[in-house]
């Protein structure tokens, strides 16, 4: 199999080099042959070259992909370069080599022979014939014509961005003999099972997973399908990782003690950073309203979280500056505070049953990296709850408790969102 493939590709060139063992052929032989084939017999390029015009001409087509030039996710177009390997038998171009000095094949400008008007059906540019008259076709003495038109093919390709950037897309290049029907031209697959990738040069954004060739029954067309997989590294590094880091910063707002006076400015800064970043990101994402990508949903969720966090922060700040004497703390908030203290105490005593230095207070909670000074004001009481604690509770303590609760809620929510979105996407990518 490995050996056969290169043979097929360079078949015309190999034949050109090795087949004419007959040394005797001269340019006069070639002239004589061309005169006989074209002038004397009155060759007409409009006549389909089968003797019985009721029988279709068999045209076999192979596709050699050379490169993927561009796959535009937003315009949904695939630009490829490659060439077709088209061959058929021309009844009028047959000769006996012995008569012409053992001449077994000749080259003829492509417009001088009949050829099927093969064109790209799902192209986006103006329909024009393949190749050009500067290209030659090769004809051998049995009348087999080989035509290898090279081209840049711009085709439409519907894109499903659901799993972006871990998506796999299938693009078709549909070729047909435009003017002919089934009873005139029988388009068939060539010798290759699928698109030939021998000449293929790897693309930096897409890798080819699979290729296939299909001939639609009852249609004069042949469909070459390319299954492409996006290389996600660029988007992971430039979109996903920064957004994840920003969403972690977002949660860290709850670490800042209300007294520091930095909470509001920090939360708004993070929100703005996220917003600026998202405007950049949307230019990278495929713009498609038909299906929404999971990554788009993730970005929206991140923005929603950020908005909620800013709102909550402002609300907590307001509470922080309330006076217990003017606004008594509602009993449910005191209960909540009690629960938080219990959770934090239990976890703390498990690790450090005896000692309670201020350093430990700042190290104790994974999320809370408050300075020792802040810890005394905010968190130390919670580590040593006394009996008359209730009377000492201020709005500041409530705020600390709320911060603690929201920190864990949003950490959990962010974690769940990230794990869900990416497990769905990566699961699809692995399939
Ligand atoms: C086309 O191929 C079919 C099946 O291989 C064959 O029967 C038919 O004779 C061919 N047509 C011509 C014009 O050679
Ligand atoms: C053509 O080839 C045959 C056999 O290879 C040889 O006998 C003959 O002399 C050749 N004819 C010419 C004109 O060279
Ligand atoms: C078209 O070609 C295929 C494959 O060579 C062959 O099986 C089929 O019979 C042909 N159809 C006609 C109408 O000749
Ligand atoms: C070509 O087709 C064969 C079988 O149809 C398949 O095993 C192989 O993976 C295909 N090659 C490519 C590059 O798609």
Automatic annotation (TrEMBL):
<keyword id="KW-0325">Glycoprotein</keyword>
<comment type="similarity">
    <text>Belongs to the ligand-gated ion channel (TC 1.A.9) family.</text>
</comment>
<dbReference type="GO" id="GO:0097060">
    <property type="term" value="C:synaptic membrane"/>
</dbReference>
<feature type="domain" description="Neurotransmitter-gated ion-channel ligand-binding">
    <location>
        <begin position="31"/>
        <end position="232"/>
    </location>
</feature>
<keyword id="KW-0472">Membrane</keyword>
<dbReference type="InterPro" id="IPR018000">
    <property type="entry name" value="Neurotransmitter_ion_chnl_CS"/>
</dbReference>
<keyword id="KW-0675">Receptor</keyword>
<dbReference type="InterPro" id="IPR038050">
    <property type="entry name" value="Neuro_actylchol_rec"/>
</dbReference>
<dbReference type="InterPro" id="IPR036734">
    <property type="entry name" value="Neur_chan_lig-bd_sf"/>
</dbReference>
<keyword id="KW-1133">Transmembrane helix</keyword>
<dbReference type="GO" id="GO:0034220">
    <property type="term" value="P:monoatomic ion transmembrane transport"/>
</dbReference>
<feature type="domain" description="Neurotransmitter-gated ion-channel transmembrane">
    <location>
        <begin position="239"/>
        <end position="358"/>
    </location>
</feature>
<keyword id="KW-0813">Transport</keyword>
<keyword id="KW-0406">Ion transport</keyword>
<dbReference type="InterPro" id="IPR006201">
    <property type="entry name" value="Neur_channel"/>
</dbReference>
<keyword id="KW-1003">Cell membrane</keyword>
<protein>
    <submittedName>
        <fullName>Uncharacterized protein</fullName>
    </submittedName>
</protein>
<dbReference type="InterPro" id="IPR006202">
    <property type="entry name" value="Neur_chan_lig-bd"/>
</dbReference>
<dbReference type="InterPro" id="IPR006029">
    <property type="entry name" value="Neurotrans-gated_channel_TM"/>
</dbReference>
<keyword id="KW-0812">Transmembrane</keyword>
<keyword id="KW-1015">Disulfide bond</keyword>
<feature type="transmembrane region" description="Helical">
    <location>
        <begin position="405"/>
        <end position="426"/>
    </location>
</feature>
<feature type="transmembrane region" description="Helical">
    <location>
        <begin position="233"/>
        <end position="258"/>
    </location>
</feature>
<keyword id="KW-0770">Synapse</keyword>
<dbReference type="Pfam" id="PF02931">
    <property type="entry name" value="Neur_chan_LBD"/>
</dbReference>
<keyword id="KW-0732">Signal</keyword>
<feature type="transmembrane region" description="Helical">
    <location>
        <begin position="297"/>
        <end position="317"/>
    </location>
</feature>
<keyword id="KW-0407">Ion channel</keyword>
<keyword id="KW-1071">Ligand-gated ion channel</keyword>
<feature type="transmembrane region" description="Helical">
    <location>
        <begin position="264"/>
        <end position="285"/>
    </location>
</feature>
<dbReference type="InterPro" id="IPR002394">
    <property type="entry name" value="Nicotinic_acetylcholine_rcpt"/>
</dbReference>
<feature type="signal peptide">
    <location>
        <begin position="1"/>
        <end position="24"/>
    </location>
</feature>
<dbReference type="InterPro" id="IPR036719">
    <property type="entry name" value="Neuro-gated_channel_TM_sf"/>
</dbReference>
<dbReference type="Pfam" id="PF02932">
    <property type="entry name" value="Neur_chan_memb"/>
</dbReference>
């Amino acid at each position: 199999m490995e050996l056969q493939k290169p043979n097929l590709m360079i078949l015309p060139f190999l034949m050109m080099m090795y087949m004419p063992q007959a040394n005797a052929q001269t340019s006069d032989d070639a002239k004589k042959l061309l005169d006989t084939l074209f002038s004397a017999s009155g060759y007409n390029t409009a006549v389909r070259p089968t003797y019985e015009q009721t029988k279709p001409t068999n045209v076999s087509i192979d596709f050699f992909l050379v490169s993927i030039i561009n796959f535009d996710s937003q315009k949904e177009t695939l630009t490829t370069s490659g060439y077709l390997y088209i061959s058929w038998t021309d009844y009028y171009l047959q000769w006996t080599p012995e008569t012409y000095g053992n001449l077994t094949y000749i080259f003829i400008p492509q417009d001088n022979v009949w050829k099927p008007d093969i064109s790209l059906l799902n192209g986006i540019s103006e329909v024009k014939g393949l190749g050009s008259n500067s290209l030659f076709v090769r004809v051998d003495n049995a009348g087999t014509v080989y035509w290898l038109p090279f081209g840049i093919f711009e085709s439409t390709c519907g894109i499903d961005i659901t799993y972006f950037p871990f998506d796999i897309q299938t693009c078709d290049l549909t070729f047909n003999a435009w003017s002919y029907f089934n009873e005139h031209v029988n388009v068939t697959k060539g010798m290759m099972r699928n698109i030939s990738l021998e000449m293929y040069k790897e693309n930096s954004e897409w890798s080819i997973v699979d290729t296939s060739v299909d001939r639609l029954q009852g249609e004069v067309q042949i469909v070459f399908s390319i299954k492409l997989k996006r290389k996600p590294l660029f988007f992971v590094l430039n979109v996903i990782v920064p957004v994840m880091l920003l969403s972690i910063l977002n949660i860290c707002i709850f670490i800042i003690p209300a007294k520091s006076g930095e909470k509001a400015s920090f939360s708004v800064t993070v929100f703005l950073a996220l917003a600026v970043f998202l405007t950049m990101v949307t230019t990278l994402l495929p713009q498609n309203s038909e299906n929404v990508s999971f990554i788009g949903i993730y970005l929206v969720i991140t923005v929603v979280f950020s908005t909620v966090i800013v709102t909550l922060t402002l609300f907590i700040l307001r509470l922080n500056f309330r006076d217990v004497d003017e606004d008594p703390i509602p009993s449910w908030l005191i209960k909540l505070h009690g629960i938080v203290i219990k959770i934090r105490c239990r976890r703390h005593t498990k690790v450090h049953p005896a000692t309670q230095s201020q350093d430990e207070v700042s190290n104790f909670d994974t999320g809370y990296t408050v300075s020792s000074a802040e810890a005394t004001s905010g968190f130390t009481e919670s580590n040593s709850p006394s009996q008359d604690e209730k009377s000492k509770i201020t709005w500041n303590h409530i705020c600390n408790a709320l911060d603690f609760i929201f920190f864990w809620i949003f950490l959990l929510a962010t974690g769940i969102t990230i794990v869900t979105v990416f497990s769905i996407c990566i699961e699809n990518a692995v399939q």
